[in-house]
């Protein structure tokens, strides 16, 4: 049994959940502490968090430290989201927090944050798996932005971030200095154009029947008021709309009493309602599900999963791969060519494990690089490497950290361009030496795989690899002429040898 604390330094709220985690009983929440602190107001309006707000944050975090001692917490994870991620003085704030509270806060990229939210929903198990069998959208509403992830037949097919978070929308409205009766019209004007573009790019002929809502306001209210027959059941859109129309018919003071929440939260609830109404109309959804999970649940679930205390029921790695496959499809990537490169590259990776020492995560990064190897040709067939790099770093790949996304982008880039050494790459990149070496080693593998299919004709029925002394013997089974592949292989082999001190050698095996 372990006692674990998950801390979410959010845009509008500081939250900590204490869990008991064991392989026998799974995860059990034993306490949930929350403090309202509007970090987003500073970040989204001024660009950085003020000293007074940092002082308030540290005071609450010191309380959390004492609570963790009371529960004898053995380990914790603390993450900051968009308010800290987008502020200009992030490094200073994180150092202040560590010095004054002893708590080390890590900053999540948007894709990492949304992936943890997604994991917390998937942890609901059977209910989640049943819902995503049909067209489903997860709408994850944060302070600075929302993330819309689309599922079809259990598969994640697209995910997109839109800067339409409730705190950001609230700040726009405050800046315009308008009354509450005008909110609905102005929010509609702010969000409609982005939702229209989203519909054209991602929905087209897709039928979205279900929406899973992850937020701090509608979720809390619907689960508390229990408008479904049972907490956790799905709610039809008409029932939801009928219930939420109370927001337009009552005064703020009446709603504060009716919903038992502060006036400020009622305003954010109203903004969330208008935003969700537009999303429902855009998708034509019929049913809503509010699982009532938070980022803290996702943090705890990932901790339990990484420590093999809880085994995942859902294949999250396949979601990352499906996301990459759909990005490739969007940019007219060759599916057949990508599958060939994937098969060859992963075969080489597996046979070189003793040399490169990488694990499953690096294998996944290589797999994604093979799927996205030619996405840049959509923009330019001449500047393929640079364009591929730009597409990959600018596109949301849910589940990858910023550093991992940068690694994949560079592997694809240097598959097409001359490799830059660390000092040269460091002029335009902040990647550390460990990440640089991952790029070099994975690029070397992808280059060799690319060289083996230089004609793009998928000539090989089978590719086998064997490490012998200082040579990697690559046996290809084919009766076709591979003069081109052999002739253009030497340069790629030289870089592989430079990186690994192993020389790749092609051997042809003809079939009868």
Describe this structure in words.
The structure is a single chain. With 512 residues, the chain is of the alpha/beta class. The strands form 3 sheets. It has a 6-stranded mixed beta sheet with strand order 8-7-6-9-11-10, with helices on both faces. It has a 5-stranded mixed beta sheet with strand order 3-2-1-4-5, with helices on both faces. A hairpin with a 4-residue loop joins strand 6 and strand 7. Helix 7 crosses helix 13, helix 18 crosses helix 22 and helix 22 packs antiparallel against helix 24. The relative contact order is 0.09. The mean pLDDT is 89.
Summed up:
With 512 residues, this protein is α/β, with parallel strands linked by helices. The chain has helices at 39-46, 51-70, 82-85, 90-101, 110-122, 126-131, 166-176, 183-203, 218-225, 237-244, 246-249, 252-259, 263-283, 295-306, 316-330, 335-351, 353-356, 360-371, 384-394, 402-416, 422-425, 433-452, 483-487, 490-500; strands at 2-9, 13-22, 26-36, 75-80, 105-107, 136-141, 146-152, 155-162, 210-214, 235-236, 287-289, 462-468, 471-477, 503-509.
């Amino acid at each position: 049994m372990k006692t674990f604390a998950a801390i979410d330094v959010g845009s509008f709220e500081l939250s900590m959940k204490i869990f008991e985690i064991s392989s026998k009983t799974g995860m059990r929440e034993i306490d949930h502490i929350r403090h309202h602190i509007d970090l987003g107001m500073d970040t989204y309006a001024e660009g950085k968090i003020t000293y007074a707000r940092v002082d308030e944050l540290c005071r609450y975090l010191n309380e959390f430290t004492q609570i963790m001692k009371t529960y004898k917490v053995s380990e914790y994870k603390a993450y900051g989201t968009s308010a800290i991620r987008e502020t200009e003085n992030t490094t200073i704030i994180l150092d202040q927090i560590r010095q004054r509270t002893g708590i080390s806060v890590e900053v999540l990229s948007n894709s990492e944050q949304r992936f943890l939210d997604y994991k917390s929903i998937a942890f609901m198990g059977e209910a989640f798996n049943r819902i995503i069998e049909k067209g489903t959208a997860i709408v994850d509403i944060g302070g600075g932005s929302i993330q819309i992830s689309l599922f079809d037949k259990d598969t994640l097919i697209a995910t997109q971030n839109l800067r339409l978070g409730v705190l950001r929308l609230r700040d726009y409205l405050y800046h315009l200095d308008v009354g509450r009766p005008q909110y609905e019209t102005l929010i509609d004007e702010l969000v409609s154009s982005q939702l229209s573009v989203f519909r054209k790019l991602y929905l087209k002929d897709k039928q979205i029947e279900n929406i899973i809502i992850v937020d701090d306001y509608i979720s809390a209210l619907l689960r508390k008021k229990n408008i479904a027959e049972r907490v956790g059941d799905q709610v039809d859109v008409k029932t939801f709309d009928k219930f939420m129309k109370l927001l337009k018919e009552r005064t703020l003071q009446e709603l504060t009493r009716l919903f038992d929440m502060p006036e400020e939260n009622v305003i954010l609830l109203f903004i969330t309602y208008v935003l969700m109404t537009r999303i429902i109309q855009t998708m034509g959804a019929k049913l809503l599900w509010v699982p009532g999970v938070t980022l803290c649940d996702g943090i705890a679930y990932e901790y339990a999963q990484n420590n093999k205390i809880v085994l995942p029921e859902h294949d999250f790695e396949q979601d990352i791969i499906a996301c990459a496959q759909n990005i490739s499809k969007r940019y007219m990537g060759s599916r057949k060519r990508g599958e060939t490169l994937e098969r060859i590259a992963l075969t080489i990776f597996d046979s070189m494990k003793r040399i490169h020492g990488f694990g499953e995560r690096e294998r996944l990064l290589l797999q994604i690089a093979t799927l996205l190897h030619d996405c840049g040709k959509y923009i330019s067939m001449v500047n393929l490497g640079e364009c591929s790099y730009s597409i990959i770093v600018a596109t949301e790949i849910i589940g990858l950290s910023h550093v991992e996304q940068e690694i994949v982008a560079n592997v694809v880039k240097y598959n097409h361009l001359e490799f830059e050494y660390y000092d040269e790459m460091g002029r335009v990149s902040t990647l550390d030496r460990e990440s640089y070496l991952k790029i070099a080693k994975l690029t070397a593998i992808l280059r060799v795989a690319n060289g083996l299919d230089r004609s793009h004709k998928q000539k090989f029925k089978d590719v086998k690899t064997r490490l012998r002394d200082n040579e990697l013997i690559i046996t290809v089974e084919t009766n076709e002429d591979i003069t081109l592949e052999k002739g253009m292989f030497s340069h790629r082999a030289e870089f592989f040898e430079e990186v690994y001190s192993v020389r790749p050698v092609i051997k042809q095996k003809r079939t009868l």
